[in-house]
Write a structure and sequence with these properties.
- The complex is a heterodimer.
- By secondary structure, chain A is of the alpha/beta class.
- Chain A folds into two domains: 218 residues, Rossmann fold (3-Layer(aba) Sandwich), CATH 3.40.50; 141 residues, Response regulator (Rossmann fold, 3-Layer(aba) Sandwich), CATH 3.40.50.2300.
- The longest helix of chain A has 23 residues.
- Chain B has one domain: ABC transporter involved in vitamin B12 uptake, BtuC (Orthogonal Bundle), CATH 1.10.3470.
- The chains are: A alpha/beta, B mainly alpha.
- At the A-B interface, helix 2, strand 2, helix 3, helix 4 and helix 14 of A face helix 3, strand 1, helix 13 and helix 14 of B.
- Chain A: Keywords: Signal.
- Chain A: It comes from Neoaquamicrobium microcysteis.
Amino acid sequence: MTIKRRTFLAGSAAAAIASQFPIRLASAQDNVIRFSMPQDFTRVYTFVTAEYSQGQRDYLTLINERGGINGHRFVADVSDHGNDLPRAIEAYERAKSEGAVLVDPLSTPVARALVPRALEDKINMITAFSGRSDAADGSVFPYVLPLSPNYWTQAGLLIDYFRQVDGDLSGKKICFVHIDTPFGKEPLPILEKLAESQGFELLAFPYTPPGNDQSAIWPQVRRARPDWIMFWGAGVGQTVALTEAIRNGLPMDRLSSSVWLSESDMEVVGAAQAAGVMKVEPCVSGREPRLIQDILAEVVGAGKGAGPEDKVGTSYYNYGVMLASLMVEGVRVAFEKAPDGPVTGEWLNAGLRAITGFDAEGLIPPTTITPEDHQGGGQARIGRWDGEKFVAETDWFSANQDVVWEEIRKYSAEFKETGQ
Amino acid sequence: MFYRRAGIRHTRYQDERQIWPLPFDRGLVIAVFLLALAAPFFLDRLYLVGYMLPWIIWSTAALGLNFLMGGAGQIHLGYGAVIAIGAYGSVHMVRSGIPFEIAMIGGGLLSASVGIVFGAAALRVKGLYLAMATLAMQYIVDFVIVHFPTISGGTQATIQVPRVSFLGLAVVGDAPTYYVALFVCIVVTLFMLNVKRTSLGRALAAVREKDYAAAIIGVNTFRYKLLAFWVSSFIGGVVGSVLAVCYYRAISPDQFHLELSIQLVAMVIVGGLGSVLGSFFGAALILFAPILLNQAIGFMAGGMGVAISTDLRSHVPLMLYGAMIIGFLLWEPLGLAKIYSNIRNYFLVWPFRHARQ
C-alpha cells in the first residue's frame, strides 16, 4: 500500500473542510419558535432543575398538542450546562446560531455571566429565581427578564407577613440564617433597612458553602431566642438547615424559607417533623390548578409526559409550568402586536414586556410585565407545610416594594453607568 | 517518508538547537499558526466563540500551571485563585481608567506578588503538604473576594468589564477578542517552548528532580522555587485579565472557585506534565469532552429515538467523561502529548517499524 504525501495532504485538507459544514438538524423549518434551555441537571441545582424542566416541557407539549400559538409550535432545546460557564456560553452561542429567541439558564452564575451577551445579541434571557435581582429594572436590562419576585421582594414579603401575624415587629428578634455566598447575602441590605424602619432586631448567621454542615450555627440561633427565623440557601443547604432547626427544637411555625423549598426536601427531612415550616410561593403548588389538570389529562395521560408522573404538581414542577406559561403568553402577545413576525428576539421581547394581568388560569398571581418592571409586580403568597402539602396562609400580596425598588434602582444605575 | 529525515545533518550548533529541527515539523507549526490566524474568516461563529476562544485561553492558563507543575515540580491547587486575582486586579484597573495593556501587566504583577507569598510555603513543604497550602490559598482568596464588596462589586457580586482597546485595536466583537487572546497565547507558548533551553529552565528541572541535589550542584533552590511561583502566577494573572476582558465580560466570584483549579490541574496531567503541546490537548479534552458527549447523547436521545430519561441523559455524559479520563491515563500515563509523540515516532520511520529515536 502506498500513500503519497500529496494524497495524504489532500485527504486531510478535504477532511478539515468537510468538518466545517455544521450538522444542522431539521431545525430550519418554518413555524417553529425555539426556546433554549441549557440548565444545570448535574452539579448544583440537580433535582430542582429536573422538576422545573419537566414542568416547562410538559406545558410546551400541552400547547403544541393544542396546535401551538398562531400555527407556530415550540421547540425546547434542553441541555445540561452543569453550572460550568464555558459549557453554558457554548450552549448560548449554539442557541443563538440556531435562531433561538429565548434562553432560560436557571442558574445564578450563568445568568450573571450571560447578561452582557444577551443585551448585545437581543436574545431574551429568563432569570426566574436566579441571576441579578436588579434586572427587575427593565429600562436598564431590556432583554433580561426575571418574570418572578426577586430575592429582595421575597425577603420583603416575609417580613411583611411576620408583621401581619404579630401586628407590630418593634422589639422583635428575627434571625436570618444564610449561605455565605453573594446569593445568600443578597437580602441583607433590604432586611437591614426594614429592621431600621420597623424596629426589629436582625441577627444574621452565615454558614459556609455548600452548607452540608451547619451544626455550629443552629445552636446559636436557638440561644438567640428569635421570634422569627428565615433560612436562605439552595440545594443541600436547605434540607440540612431544616434538619438542624428541628434538632434544635426551634418552632417550625416561626420558620420560613425563600421559594427554594419543596416536597422533595420534605421527604429528605421527614414530612411529619417539618410540619409548620413556611415558604414563599410564587405560584400555586399541588395538582388543583386548571393547567396542571389539563397537563395530567392531555399530556401525561396521553403518555407524552417529560418525566415521572408523581413529580407532576410538585412545587418546582409548577414553577416550570409558571415560567413556561409566561413565555408562551409573551409569544401570544407578540403575535397580537405583530402577527406576521418575523420571529426574532426583539419581536418576542415586545410581547414579553406587554403581558397584562395574566394569571395562567389561576396558577399564578395576576402578572403584568412592563418595559420598566420585569418582576411582574412582585406578588406571591406564603405557604405552610401541613405534613403532606403546602397550604396557602395568605392570598397573593405584594409588600415593601418601595424599599426593594430603591435597591433595584441603585444597582441598575450603577450597572448602567459602568456596564457599557 | 513523511518527515524526510534522511540526509539532514546539522553542521552548525544553531541548527542543532532549533526548537523544530525537522522541516516537516516547522511546516506543520506554520500551517497550524496560519489556520489559527485565519480562523475568524473561515470558521463558523459558534465554533470561534464557543470553542476556539475558550480553548486558547484555557490552554494559556494550563501552560502557566504546567510551568510550575511540569517545569519546577511544584503542585498548585489554587491556580484558579491566581487567575481570579489577575482578573479582578486588571478589571478594577481598567475601570479606574488605566489602559488595558498596562492593566494586563498590572494584573499579572498583582497575581505574582500574592502568588509568591503562598509559593513561599513551597520552601518548607512538598508534595501533598504543598497541595494543602495552595488549596488554602484558593479558599482565602475566594473568601476575601466575596467578603469585600469593593472587590466583588456589592450585593450583586458582578463587575462588568468596560470596553477596552489593545494596542489600538478595540476589543469588541468576535474577531478582535479572539486575536487578543491568541496574541497572549502565542507569547506564552513561545516563552514556554524556549524556557527549557535557558539557565532558568535547567535550574528548575534540577529543582524538580531533587531539590537537595540541585542545591549541592549550586542551584539556589530558594531563589528558583520562588521564581517559579512568580513566573507562573504572573502568567495566571495575565490569563485572568484576558479571560475577563475577552471571554466573560462580566466577572463574579463563582467563576474562579476550586472547580477551575481542579480543571486546570486535570488539563496539565491529562495533557502531559511539562509538555507545551500537552497543555493544548489537555485543555481541549477537559473543556470539550463534556460538551461533545452531551451533544452525542442528546442527539441519540432526540434524533435516533433512544428513549432515556432526562436524568440519565444528563448523567451518562458524565460517566463517559470519567471513564474517558481514566482510560487515557491507563493507556498512556504520560498524557496526551505522549500519545502524539508515539504516533509521530511511528510515522518518523514509516513504513519501517523501528529506528533510533
